[in-house]
Design a protein that fits this description.
Length: 528
């Protein structure tokens, strides 16, 4: 048997009261020591994809719970990282996947059935599904830390693997503590650097990268500071009509609010006028938000104010990048985001790739930002959101935020990559499968209808197979679902529609929704 990794032995021998305090210098030192093994693991697996490894997937949404409450069925978002089950196509990879609640077996089997070239029975033997049996709003990482027997079970699964690591949705102090206590390096950005992905931090990164971003002010905390910043935006551009106020750690645009300058007088103290209007004038993207709750969150986490970039033909593309384990910055993909909400700032989905009119331009912007983050020590995947407006036959791009974590464009792209074994060609910005075909997709996390309430996972699979919508490996076309667990309770699910052109991908998407609507049109609920 292959001996256990030395650090795994070291940490497994510790008693509970020997662990360094969370956030302490001792814990940070232990974490840094563990993460020094990541480049070694990267080089070994790059040289031999059949090398034995164990991957522990912790899809914890370790974000402000007040922001997560705005998302319907948010605890099911732990399912979005099920795309990592595709790693089981590597014949000596073991995967431990941990969730808050048990997942329906059909959901797991659905992903295993997508594995190209690997019998499901072989993959199942290398997959361990664990859960906390806890549906509370606490972050999953914290739930695991509070269950010592579950921690022991995870450590047991690591035995015999000289190479192992943990991957997560986003990296905070909880994930660092969990990594240290499991004796695992975390393939993600050090929590000490997560400020670079805040709304304030990303403005500083954009400044360093030399890319355009909206005029505004960062590091704001009080209503008076918000009012002063809004006044500064008006002084900078007297013709400005709208500004956007953003919480530093808002999620999917739900932490944003619009301020209109309409009706402000030219005389008097501009700051005082704005301050008096703040409680009633902000238009929140989250329908349940109020001034009192928003101001309280602003005091806690801070935020920014900046010019709202709006014009006819406005687009909202994004660039997904990665800094790999040896510090190389890479552009992975480009997308056009599908946005909704009160003022079109809430993420609903995306199309891949971004428009040919500007995809190469935004690739360059992404590369410049990624280089700055690489120099700062960031590793892992992240997304850069932009606003692009047409100007005289060309496009002007404004970087607006960095999501220093996995996001809404991560799992659709990984789905395409794993299913087709292809890669992005940065010369033309297109993705080519192993067959040489350019591939496109239309993806959404927010398909929701009351008609779908009560629809079980087996019902969904039956409908998809019956109507021939399921992804078909030989043709490399079809639909892959996610958030299946949210369907019955919330009438909500996500999907990635893959085709040989953007038009085909969108047609598959429309046909799938039409089929679901038609099949559930006559369903009736019976109340006892």
């Amino acid at each position: 048997m292959t001996p256990a990794h030395p650090r795994t032995i070291l940490w497994c021998m510790k008693k509970a009261d020997d662990w360094p305090e969370p956030g302490s210098d001792a814990e940070r030192a232990a974490y840094a020591e563990l993460c020094r093994t990541i480049p070694v693991l990267f080089r070994v697996l790059s040289a031999d994809r059949r090398a034995p490894q164990c991957v522990v997937v912790v899809p914890s949404l370790s974000l402000d719970p007040r922001e997560l409450e705005k998302i319907s069925g948010v605890y099911h978002y732990e399912e979005r990282m099920l795309v990592n089950l595709m790693l089981l196509r590597q014949p000596r990879t073991k995967l431990v996947y941990i969730t808050s609640q048990p997942l329906h077996p059909i959901i797991v089997n659905y992903y295993l059935s997508l594995l190209p070239g690997v019998p499901a029975s072989h993959a199942t033997g290398r997959l361990v599904m664990l859960d906390c049996n806890d549906r509370s709003s606490l972050p999953l990482s914290l739930k695991i830390l509070r269950r010592p027997r579950l921690m022991a079970r995870i450590r047991k699964e690591l035995e015999g693997f000289p190479f192992a690591h943990m991957t997560c949705f986003n990296s905070t102090g909880y994930e660092r503590t969990l990594a240290v206590r499991l004796g695992l390096p975390l393939y993600s950005t050090d929590p000490e650097l997560m400020h670079l992905g805040s709304k304030s931090g990303c403005r500083r990164v954009f400044r360093e990268a030399g890319v355009d971003f909206p005029f505004g002010c960062e590091d704001l905390y009080t209503p008076d500071e918000i009012a002063s910043a809004l006044a500064e935006v008006r002084r900078h551009d007297p013709a400005v009509r709208l500004a956007v106020v953003k919480l530093n750690h808002g999620f999917s645009g739900e932490g944003n609010a619009l301020f209109s300058y309409d009706g402000l007088g030219d005389g008097g103290d501009l700051v005082s006028q704005i301050r008096a209007r703040l409680p009633s004038a902000l238009r929140y993207e989250a329908m349940t938000e109020t001034w009192d709750s928003y101001a309280a969150k602003f005091r806690d986490m801070g935020g920014v104010v900046e010019t709202f970039v709006g014009a006819a033909g406005r687009r909202s593309p994004s660039v997904q990048c990665r800094v790999n384990a040896i510090g190389e910055a890479q552009v992975i993909s480009t997308h056009d985001q599908l946005l909704g909400g009160v003022s079109g700032q809430v993420f609903l989905g995306c199309t891949f790739p971004a428009s040919s009119a500007y995809r190469l331009e935004i690739q360059q912007i992404g590369a410049r930002v990624a280089e700055v983050l690489a120099r700062r020590g960031v590793i892992g995947r992240f997304g850069i959101d932009l606003v692009s407006i047409p100007v005289g036959g060309a496009w002007r791009h404004y970087a607006i935020e960095i999501n220093l974590r996995k996001g809404g464009t991560t799992h659709p792209f990984l789905t395409l990559k794993f299913l087709t074994s292809g890669r992005l060609n940065c010369t033309d910005g297109l993705f080519y499968s192993s067959s040489g075909r350019a591939k496109y997709y239309y993806a959404s996390d927010t398909i929701q209808s009351d008609r779908y309430l009560g629809l079980l996972p087996e019902d969904l699979i039956d409908l998809v197979v019956y109507h021939g919508l399921h992804f078909h490996g030989p043709t490399e076309r079809g639909v892959v679902f996610h958030l299946i667990g949210a369907l019955s309770e919330f009438g909500k699910l996500g999907l990635v529609s893959i085709g040989d052109s953007q038009e085909e991908a969108e047609e598959i998407h429309r046909r799938t929704l039409k089929t679901l609507d038609e099949e559930t049109a006559h369903d009736t609920a019976t109340f006892v």
